[in-house]
Structures are given as C-alpha cells and as structure tokens.
Specification:
By secondary structure, this protein is α/β, with parallel strands linked by helices. Helix content is about 40%, strand content about 15%. The structure holds phosphoenolpyruvate (PEP). Phosphoenolpyruvate (PEP) binds near residues 10, 211, 213 and 214.
Length: about 250
C-alpha cells in the first residue's frame, strides 16, 4: 500500500497564490512520486486547482480533496457543499472531522461519522481526523478519546470503513510547531490499527496517516514508523519546497 501525503491548505490561498504554489510544486517534483499525493483546498478554488493539476504533467497524478463535506443530500442547506458536488469538481478525498471543525463548529462524533458516510456514498475517500486535546493527553485520556472518535465512524459505516483513511492529529500539535514524537505517534497509530482490525477483515487497506506540524525536518522519522502510512500536512503544504521534500521522504 502506497503512503499518502495529503496537503491541507486550510483557509489559505488566492487565485494568484495557488497558481504560484502549483507552478513551484511542478518545478520541484522530478517525476511520478513514490507515494500518493493529494491536495485538500478551499471549496472556491477546487475548479482552479483541478485545472492546474491537469495542465502540469508532473502534477497530473496528484489527487484533489475537499476540506469538509456536508452530511446532507443536496437541498436547502445554505452554505454547505454536498459530497456529490465535491465529486463533480474532481475530488477523490474529503477531510472530515478536522479538529478545527470539531472545535470551532461544534462537530460531534456522530456528525463526523455521517459526513464520512456521505463521502463514501459519493465514491470519495473520507480522511477521518481523530485526536486528543492537550488537556485530554495530560489527563491520560488519549486512547479513550481517539477510540471513541473512530468507533463512531465504524459504527455508522460498517464494512465500508475499509475504504477510509484515518488521520491521527493530536490537537496540541496542529499548527503549533509541536509534533508528537515518532514513538508517541506510533503508539496511537497501533491502537487505531488494532481497533480497525477488530472491526473489519480488510483493515490492511486502511491508511492511518499522522498530522500535526509535520515538516521536512521531522517527516522521515515519523514516516519510518510501522503504523504511520503517510501524513496530513497543513502549514508545510503551503511551502512548495517543504512539501516536495516531504513527498520525497515518503517511501512506498
Ligand atoms: C492540519 O491542518 O491538518 C495540520 C496537520 O496542520 P499543521 O501541519 O499546520 O499542524
């Protein structure tokens, strides 16, 4: 199974900045990367990025993803983006349950599970984020929290969970410059792997990626861990040189 390096641009970008970033990425990527690469970009730029990826031969293998998806079918849900719309815009992935959405938009485990279901039903791969806050880690509750978050997705999606990607993103490491040590991350990834194994006979097809201040300097050690199948990269995905280095560090 190839590792997955997914960039999460968060609410950053402009038409000009996106074009400059992708031009720099195209120049930095020597050829087909050994790993799978995806870019999860703000919804208004999906069409632009889709076209730019197709127009650069060295970027044409990069997949597109949304940063969130509505749990609802199309209809009267002003401001939301349906899974069918993301798919129609060329998305293969949709991030669900990012901690910024859980924290600032009150997303519950049940809603995140429904969003994963909507993405799967539209033929996309949900990147399901789980992770504990600093207070939860300090209280020794890391395992309980991430297992509860993943259990909701397993419960709602049954055998389809073999089609998901799980992103372990400790909340205290996101955008802070503080990274979980490779050993700390591996411990949680192994827990999640065991939980997936107990839930589906096809757990081997589920990638568990790490996110939280992953950068060109720490990626190699994190990606060398046996249960770390890639990375979800925020800040460093906005710097072409750093993102290219991380891609190069991800073995098959
Ligand atoms: C993220 O947004 O998912 C993330 C991991 O951000 P950063 O890499 O900036 O910590």
């Amino acid at each position: 199974m190839k590792k997955l390096i997914a960039g999460n641009w968060k609410m950053n970008g402009s038409r000009a900045a996106n074009e400059a970033l992708l031009t720099a990425l195209a120049a930095g990527l020597p050829g087909e990367p050994a790993c799978e690469v995806a870019l999860c970009v703000p919804a208004p730029y999906l069409a632009q990025v889709h076209a730019l990826l197709a127009s650069h031969p060295s970027l044409s293998g990069i997949a597109l993803g949304g940063q969130d998806v509505s749990a609802h079918a199309p209809g009267a849900f002003t401001g939301e983006t349906s899974a069918a719309m993301l798919k129609d815009c060329g998305c293969q992935f949709a991030i669900v349950g990012h901690s910024e959405r859980r924290q600032h938009h009150g997303e519950t485990d049940a809603l995140v599970a429904d969003k994963a279901k909507a993405a799967l039903a539209a033929g996309m791969t949900p990147i399901v984020c789980v992770g504990e806050t600093l207070a939860e880690r300090q209280a020794g509750r890391t395992a309980e929290v991430v297992k509860r978050q993943l259990a909701a997705v397993i419960h709602a999606n049954g055998h389809c969970i073999s089609e998901i990607v799980v992103a372990y993103e400790p909340v205290w490491a996101i955008g802070t410059g503080q990274t979980a040590s490779p050993e700390e991350a591996q411990t949680v990834h192994a827990l999640l792997r065991a939980q997936l194994k107990a839930a589906t006979a096809r757990s081997d097809s589920v990638r568990i990626v790490y996110g939280g201040s992953m950068n060109a300097a720490n990626a190699a050690a994190l990606l060398a861990q046996p249960d770390i199948d890639g990375g979800l990269i925020g800040g460093a995905s906005l710097k072409a040189a750093d993102f290219v280095k991380i891609i190069a560090l991800a073995p098959v």
